From TrEMBL:
Cited SUPFAM superfamilies: FAD/NAD(P)-binding domain, FAD/NAD-linked reductases, dimerisation (C-terminal) domain
Record-annotated FAD/NAD(P)-binding domain positions: 5-312
The protein's name in its UniProt record: Dihydrolipoyl dehydrogenase
Protein origin, superkingdom: Bacteria
InterPro entries on file: FAD/NAD-bd_sf, FAD/NAD-binding_dom, FAD/NAD-linked_Rdtase_dimer_sf, Pyr_nuc-diS_OxRdtase, Pyr_nucl-diS_OxRdtase_dimer
Annotated residues for binding of NAD(+): 173-180, 260
Gene3D superfamilies: 3.30.390.30, FAD/NAD(P)-binding domain
């Protein structure tokens, strides 16, 4: 058996920089990766999906320019779109490989599992180390629908290998992936059907977020089938046929399954090192420590909010903790975004979440149709909402639905990190005419509904 100073299992968003940093300090670090280097984000998550959406939204916006009096004929070169996506993906992937190599990390390209205390084995190597970090992420959770397993369905894993635009796309799941990739292919020309088992899309968000998005999707002829399950999947002559629980049948040349994630722990044999799992996820404390001393877990596999910036921040915090700094995983403000059009930018608590915690909370909402910039630019669907604690006046959360709100929500992230009050935002003088100008306007709603809140409105 070999020994090392540190083992990292999985080359996700946290594992790669951690392995590289430790190796640069002169430690002997081994990283195991069973698939391509760089994990989900780079290879089959954020990077390819956002490069793909750049093309899709360019097409969508060009069509919508009709509203501005600009008439265009959109012609999509799908192979060129996907080639660009794969080129970006590949360049990021090569960057990961170079980073690990330059830092002196020993990379073992194989699946790792525990065979003893802090002892990790793959095909032909067994290594023990005093420090082991699990960063194995998640994979698609595939529902047990009769017939599905025998068909060449797509998940986010193989979606970006598509060579031809499917004339008709069927999507199971109305969450992040189904909506982003579903709207994306629709904007590039596929007739798109999204099958949702509940009565709304993006069902973890406030209901008016779901309604706003659903209306936007339906306006661009995306078919959303609510409150139905898929009972049967068949594949014949390159065509998928879905039989729905209401008896309806839908056909398409591509089927995307986007029904959530499952943690990559099935083959990890975590128990061999005394590591407990909870519903398949690695159980950690507030310092990322598992139930085995010296073994830590970061990112999606530790049931952290499943976003790249969270896994990456886990790495920064774990590194500080390993250097005996007083950091935890929970003392941070987290935001996220959904890259549909309109976008959803979120941070902190919703009104309902705050009230459930017993906080004396209040929310104000400003529709996009009352924002000068949104009217001028023709993006007047959506709203900005802020939640505050009425006892302390501190900002507790925000929901922004509209044009590029993933950018704007950072104003709230910083204000909340600084524990600012809504009065600070209200007193800020933002530039006219911008979307950002609407944020002090939003805060001004706490002063009274009928006051003028910004120039021209
Ligand atoms: C389509 C899609 C789009 C997304 N878009 C965004 C976005 O826009 N913004 C955002 O913040 N987040 C986004 N996410 C989420 C984001 O990709 C993940 O939250 C992030 O990659 C988490 O990374 P991680 O570090 O936990 O692990 P991962 O990046 O998942 O990496 C885990 C690695 O471990 C490897 N592995 C697993 N088991 C083993 C084993 N036993 N031995 C060796 N190696 C193993 C895997 O092969 C994988 O490479 C998206 C996800 C998807 C699927
Ligand atoms: N913009 C981003 O940051 C981004 C983008 C994509 C993915 N992600 C991350 O990846 C995660 C996974 O995305 P996802 O879209 O797979 O999951 P999700 O949890 O967002 O959505 C899955 C949806 O599928 C539904 N569903 C589950 N089983 C079903 C079934 N049998 N039939 C029909 N519907 C079913 C669920 O009700 C849910 O609405 C996200 O939660 C997010 O953390 C982030």
């Amino acid at each position: 058996m070999e020994t090392a100073d540190a083992i990292v299992i999985g080359s996700g968003q946290g594992g790669v920089p951690l392995a590289a940093d430790l190796a640069k300090e002169g430690r002997n670090v081994v990283l195991f990766e069973r698939d391509v280097l760089g994990g989900s984000c780079i290879n089959y998550g954020c990077t390819p999906s956002k490069a793909f959406l750049a093309a899709a939204h360019a097409a969508g916006r060009a069509r919508k320019a009709d509203n501005l009096g600009i008439h265009t004929q959109v012609s999509v070169d799908f192979p060129a779109v996907m080639k660009r996506v794969r080129n970006i993906r590949d360049s990021f992937n090569q960057g990961t490989s170079k980073r690990l190599h330059d830092a002196g990390v020993k990379v073992v390209c194989a699946e790792a599992s525990f065979t003893g205390d802090r002892t990790v084995t793959s095909k032909d190597v067994t290594i023990q180390a005093p420090l082991v970090v699990i960063n194995t992420g998640t994979s698609s959770q595939i529902p047990n629908i009769p017939g599905l397993a025998e068909t060449p369905y797509l998940t986010n894993r193989n979606f970006f290998d598509l060579q031809q635009l499917p004339p008709r796309l069927l999507v199971i799941g109305g969450g992040y992936i189904g909506l982003e990739l579903g709207q994306g292919l629709s904007r590039l020309g596929s007739e798109t059907h999204i099958i949702v088992r509940g009565d709304r899309i993006l069902d973890r968000e406030e209901s008016d977020v779901s309604t706003t998005l659903a209306e936007a999707f339906q306006e661009e002829d995306i078919h959303i089938h609510f409150q139905v399950n898929v009972d049967q999947v068949a594949y014949d002559n390159d065509v998928f046929t879905l039989t729905l629980s209401n008896g309806e049948q839908l056909q398409g040349e591509a089927l995307l399954v986007a029904t959530g994630r499952k943690p990559n722990t099935a083959t990890l044999n975590a128990a061999a090192s005394g590591i407990n799992l909870e519903k398949g996820y690695v159980k950690i404390d507030d310092h990322f420590q598992t139930t085995c001393a010296g073994v830590y877990a970061i990112g999606d596999v530790a049931k952290q909010p499943a976003f790249t910036h969270v896994s990456w921040e886990d790495y920064r915090r774990l590194k500080a903790i390993l250097c005996d700094e007083n950091r935890t995983r929970s003392d941070r403000v987290l935001g996220y975004a959904v890259y549909t059009e309109p976008q959803v930018g979120r941070v902190g608590m919703t009104l309902e979440q705050a009230q459930k915690q017993g906080i004396n909370a209040r929310a104000v909402t400003l529709p996009m149709s009352q924002i000068a910039r949104a009217i001028e630019w023709g993006h007047d669907r959506g709203f900005y909402r802020m939640v505050v604690d009425q006892d302390t006046n501190k900002i507790l959360g925000a929901t922004l639905v509209g044009y590029e709100t993933a950018e704007l929500v950072h104003v709230f992230l910083s204000l909340m990190e600084a524990e600012a009050t809504w009065q600070l935002l209200e007193q800020s003088v933002h530039i006219h005419p911008t979307y950002g100008e609407a944020l002090p306007s939003l805060a001004r709603l706490f002063l009274g509904e009928n006051l003028p809140f910004c120039p021209n409105m």
